[in-house]
Design goal:
The relative contact order is 0.08. The chain is elongated. By secondary structure, it is mainly alpha-helical.
């Protein structure tokens, strides 16, 4: 019985809602009450604004002085001087690593041929391999890593439209 009462109540509320016309539908809509279009002037808007009836969004205050151009944010990867500095640092590091490798190979050849050597191989340096060949591989890997960094810097410069001669100091 309770279900039947709830169901009939829901149906009667629905029918009443549909049967009663909405008052908003019978009222004239904004802008349709008159057939003549209204043209608003700047004076009309200023008068309504001063009364607090409307709010004008995006109004530019002409009293404030217009600033010059906004300061341009420094973008390091767009600066050719940054590329020159990075390339010079990597070239110096590459030269140093190649010199280390050449010196190590020269000393190793001297030791293998039993020539008289003034220096020796510094076994106290870090990352020295177990065998002389492993040490050469480690030094060669360092040279290759530095060369790869320099190549990546050149690619980055190319993508950022830096002239190719800039990295070479031209």
């Amino acid at each position: 019985m309770n279900r039947y009462l709830t169901f009939s109540l829901a149906i009667s509320v629905t029918l009443n809602t549909l049967a009663i016309p909405s008052r908003a539908a019978n009222r004239p809509h904004a802008g349709t009450d008159s057939q003549n279009p209204v043209v608003w002037t700047n004076d009309d808007l200023a008068r309504l604004h001063s009364l607090g009836l409307i709010s004008i969004v995006g109004q530019i205050d002409e009293e404030k002085p217009k600033s010059a151009s906004l300061p341009v944010r420094y973008v390091r990867k767009q600066d050719p001087e940054w590329y020159v500095e990075q390339a010079a640092r990597l070239r110096d590091e590459l030269e140093h690593r190649q010199a280390q490798l050449r010196e190590y190979r020269r000393r190793l050849e001297d030791a293998q041929s039993l020539r008289e050597t003034t220096g020796g191989i510094n076994l106290d340096e870090g990352d020295i391999g177990i065998t002389p060949e492993a040490s050469i591989e480690i030094l060669q890997q360092r040279v290759n890593e530095t060369q790869t960094e320099l190549d990546e810097l050149e690619d980055l410069a190319r993508r950022n439209d830096i002239p190719p001669g800039t990295l070479r100091g031209q």
